[in-house]
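Ops channel
N.P.: pipeline sanity check, posting one input/output pair.
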């Protein structure tokens, strides 16, 4: 395997406390290289992630009330 150099870019943005996004480009210059002997050449890879955050307990506390039932 010959030596190679890669440039990667990673950007993140938080829309609000419930949703975050990440955008990653690996091998920005698209230099095709092999990482494993006998493996296929790999080029640029782009990945977009959306990460929702939902706290069910906090959500339920706002809508559920507790009552004492007397029989």
């Amino acid at each position: 395997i010959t030596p190679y150099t890669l440039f990667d870019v990673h950007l993140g943005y938080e829309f609000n406390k419930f949703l975050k996004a990440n955008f990653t480009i690996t091998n920005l210059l698209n230099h095709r290289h092999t990482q494993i002997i006998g493996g296929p050449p790999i080029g640029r890879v782009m990945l977009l992630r959306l990460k929702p955050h939902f706290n069910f307990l906090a959500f339920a506390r706002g809508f559920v009330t507790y009552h004492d039932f007397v029989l």
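N.P.: looks fine end to end. DSSP finds one helix and three strands in the chain.
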